[in-house]
């Protein structure tokens, strides 16, 4: 998330998880790997680099779901805009990638975006703008 372009946090998984994602919030099944890992596609990141790292859901998790959760973001307003941009890959085997918003006054997670992969086995990019009058996690 960034505030009017002033502080944009870039996350590429090259050394570890991003500051936005805590190790504690990484549910079972997620693996930090690259295209040379021998785990099947994708064989490179969205730039075609086979050495670059990304997060991948292991094949054992095909039949269940697993979440990534960010740390706490502060409320948004006219001056403090939150945009999250990301690249993603959905394989042929099936599955849906969803982005949810959990405000701190609510127990439920609201689904704000999803893709089940009409165009599968290729990298796609997306940007989500988030509005929240209170602290939240994504």
TrEMBL record:
InterPro entries (UniProt xref): ConA-like_dom_sf (IPR013320), MAM_dom (IPR000998)
SUPFAM superfamilies attached to this UniProt entry: Concanavalin A-like lectins/glucanases (SSF49899)
Gene Ontology cellular component terms for the protein in this record: membrane
Pfam (any one): MAM
Residues of the MAM domain: 9-138
Protein name per UniProt: MALR1 protein
Protein's organism: Nyctibius bracteatus
Higher taxonomy: Eukaryota, Metazoa, Chordata, Craniata, Vertebrata
